[in-house]
Amino acid sequence: MTQTALHPPALILASTSRYRRELLQRLRLEFSVLAPEVDETPQAGEAPAALALRLARAKAQAVAAREPQALVIGSDQVADLAGEPLGKPGTHERALRQLQRMSGQTVVFHTAVALACQASGLLQTDLASVRVRFRTLQADEIERYLRAETPYDCAGSAKSEGLGIALLEAIDSDDPTALVGLPLIRVARLLRAAGVRLP
User: Fold this and answer.
1) Could you tell me the pLDDT band of residue 7, with boundaries at 50, 70 and 90?
2) Catalytic residue among 76, 80, 126, 175
3) Does 172 qualify as catalytic in the annotation?
């Protein structure tokens, strides 16, 4: 797909995440946001990285089917604890259990991105995997963190852009925004390949 100066394709972020919306704004492109309405239930035996990629594709394709001329970005993040996928906790109790299990462990956060356009048949994906080493966490600091950040909409309950950074010993990544939810280096690469001129 190529983009012309007169008729650039509309750009849509297939996400309800305010974190992804705020990150995409860094690229200074005009875009709109549509909810993808995709079932995020893992399939039996599905590896965390495969789950993230499948859901990113599904989100992009779901919105591309409704807006066939648009370029649609879909993304998903899955935390990987020794091969087990950890998603958004949704509740305080689930977040508490997730962090208790991740204490002292290395967790890989797989953040997938997909770019789709139904009219042109475009579908490209990429994956950023971030290795995060958690400190040995005490019960009271987990509780203080959860009360302060309420990270119930974050995969693995880890909100590294906020107080969650204090729970960590190290982060190993080649795409620094991936852990927050949208790997902008990879997004920019996909957009350029699709003919989008970045400012």
Assistant:
1) low
2) 76
3) no
